[in-house]
Amino acid sequence: MQKTLNLVNAPAGKRLAAWLIDQIIPVAVVAIASGVTLPPVLESTGSAQQEALASYSMAMLVAGVVCLAYTVWLWGWQASAGKTPGNLVLGLRVTSEEGTPAGWGTIFLRWVIIAVSGLVPVIGPVLMLLSNIWDTNHQRQGWHDKVARTLVVDVNAGRNPLTTGGLYGPSTFAPGALEPGDPGHPETGVSVPPASRWPAFNPAVAAGPITAVPGTEGGARQDQPAQPSSGAVPSAPAAPPAVAPATPPAPAAPPVVGEPSTSGAGHSSSGYSENQVVLVGGAAEAADPDQEMGSTQLRSQVAEPAAIKHVKLKFDDGQSHELTGSALVGRNPAPTAGESVDLLIPFADMGRSVSKTHLHLTVDAAGVWVTDRNSTNGSGVTPRGGERQRLEPGQPVLAPAGATVHFGDRSFTVSAA
Q1: pTM above 0.85, yes or no
Q2: Based on the number of CB atoms within 10 Å of its own CB, is 102 exposed (0-12), middle (13-18) or buried (19 or more)?
Q3: Helix, strand, coil percentages, rounded to 5, for the chain
Q4: DSSP-assigned letter for residue 396
Q5: Cα–Cα distance, 108 to 119 (Å, whole number)
Q6: What is the pLDDT of residues 298-356, one digit of tens each?
């Protein structure tokens, strides 16, 4: 049963075992034909031997025709559906590099390379079929796969790109994503555009927690009287609203999240960006100390969060890392000139939804500050029990303990180590 929506690279052992299973039928046909007709040739003499030899030749001809028919059938099945008897038994599929059917020409080229390796009997084909072990790109392709531009995926451990829209298939069946007929949906056969690889976001989350002045409708000020509609004559002037007596400002309450590290890019000296707000007593309050005199706010004591000295990052492919400083995440992350980071986290992604250097991470007392490094397919943060917020490139966003960080089609969770 499929365990993840991500593509899973087929291990070398399964690739070799699938190929050996595919050879069982032709080997069995030839063995049966020769086993039945060859002994009389060896045991008889004279005219009887000539008749037995004719029978043997006819049996081998029939066996050859059966093997040829099997090869053509196998060729078409693998070209159109990525399947062979061995692939079907072990849950493998052969696809193009785009996650689509490989095609007749591609599979033929792939077979020719394997056949040429047979010039070195036994060892040659075995090394060719196991050659993905030496692929520096996370054992993604064997030598024959690189030339033919094919992939071999394990559909028992991950998803099948041939039935889920290719390499970027998760966006075609994610909640609130593409509908049948839209580009990128499996029924259209069109590749998924970058803008369609993310499900819909809550506009309120992306815009920030404050969308109107508390206690008003549509953001109108309470101290402004309602304007009469055109043509209507008011019966009496509107009474001025009551204004609450001015009170001395209450002492500032501690923030919900701890002070971020000043080393993170885009942080202000006070630890908050210019658009950040502080949540106090369940209500949103502007960080600007100049409060409107006519408004009142309820305050309650907020407990200081426990300090987080370092965090644990658990990735969706099972790997985990402990982070105590800064890190870069991507397919092959590398710092820019003059940049210094404590940890590089390379992440294999067959779907190529992850950029070479996708995320910059910095840990402090509040959690992990996540910055998108202008990635191709975007990033986001989903707090525990909350809704996903898209990351703007270069703008750090806090991912507290329990949050999930999304980068491309992949993700990791943050927890206290």
Answers
A1: no
A2: buried
A3: 30, 15, 55
A4: -
A5: 18
A6: 444 444 444 556 899 999 878 899 999 999 999 889 999 989 999 999 887 776 789 99
